[in-house]
């Protein structure tokens, strides 16, 4: 059982790290992404005897990771609210942050509307943690065509949002 869990953990760790980093994108919260991955793996370890009850343990891990990240952000927000409330500066900071988040969500939603229905659907399924094979089965396509369509959708989305990838 230990070897099976270790195999699963090694296989999903890169995707967990990527997902958690997307939640903690600010530099000062970067270490929180690693903490979230560790917490996710701990929770999976605690239910290791039941992992085979799940058809897709990777999807379960992604769902757990999302919940861990949200919980951590809520907890961090609560701590910051207490400190900021004591200083009397929470209202402005929070309303500015909410306005920025709202604008960003609106901009991304408009950019997503530029994609075709199938591209948008496949991209969203991929963001939810589905594999290329799962998406292909759900959409009646081949994994290779799914990969191509998702890549094209990402490029179009990035172009619409005017985001340039950093070259390594």
Task: Write a brief caption for the model.
With 168 residues, the chain is mainly α. The protein has 7 helices and no strands. The model is unreliable at 79-90 (pLDDT under 50).
Note the total helix count. Answer: 7
For the termini, the CA-CA separation is 39 Å
Approximate shape: flat
Mean pLDDT score, rounded?
A: 76
**Whole-angstrom Rg:** 19 Å
Element string (H = helix, E = strand): HHHHHHH
Low-confidence stretches: 79-90
User: Can you summarize the main beta sheet?
Assistant: none
- The secondary structure category is mainly alpha
Strand content: under 5%
Query: Helical amount among residues, as a percent range?
Result: over 70%
What is the number of beta strands? 0
SSE layout and pairing:
Layout: H1 2-23, H2 30-46, H3 57-87, H4 90-113, H5 117-127, H6 132-139, H7 143-160
Descriptive report:
- The protein has helices at residues 2-23, 30-46, 57-87, 90-113, 117-127, 132-139, 143-160.
- By secondary structure, the chain is mostly helical.
- The protein is flat.
